[in-house]
Amino acid sequence: MKKAKILVLNGPNLNLLGIRDTKLYGQKTLEYINNILKREAENLNFEISFFQSNCEGQIIDKIHEAYGVYRGIIINPGAYTHYSIAIRDAIASVEIPTVEVHLSNIYNREEFRTKSVIAPVCVGQISGFKEYGYILALFALHEMLNRRYENE
Questions:
Q1: Binding residues for substrate
Q2: Sign of the dihedral defined by the CA atoms of residues 132, 135, 137, 139, in that order
Q3: In this structure, is the dihedral angle defined by the CA atoms of residues 142, 147, 150 and 151, taken in order, positive or negative?
Q4: Which domains are present in the chain?
Q5: pLDDT tens, residue by residue, 124-151
Q6: How far is CA 12 from CA 79, 119, 145, in A?
Q7: DSSP label of 129
Q8: Is 107 a catalytic residue?
Q9: Is 134 annotated in the active site?
Q10: Would you put residue 128 in left (φ > 0), alpha (ψ -120 to 50) or beta?
């Protein structure tokens, strides 16, 4: 059986995980998170790819490149969550099931962080569970994709 491909996108400053505000974001590095996701993806028969950028345009390009290649996207847009209509439009355009993830609970932070312009074009959002949010997103995509293709 061919493995479904999943793309994990991380936005600005997530390359500094484990260094940046560890009380809020935890002590795990992005490399650590990617490694646990890779193990879980193998268990779920997923092929997984990772990309991190501090540049909005590069994230948009990766979303465009995902069309016809990936069956699901997990995205932590970082600060772009709150104002990037361009990332929102890219996700909506490719029509790939996308789960938005945040390490911290964005609804328990500064008011400007409580609004996501990305969430309305995603199949769901997971917030506040540190690195486990990524794993939950992977499980959610697994269940969604299995149900979707069982019915075809």
A1: 76, 82, 89, 103-104, 113
A2: negative
A3: negative
A4: 4-147 (3.40.50.9100)
A5: 999 999 999 999 999 999 999 988 555 5
A6: 7, 17, 28
A7: S
A8: no
A9: no
A10: left
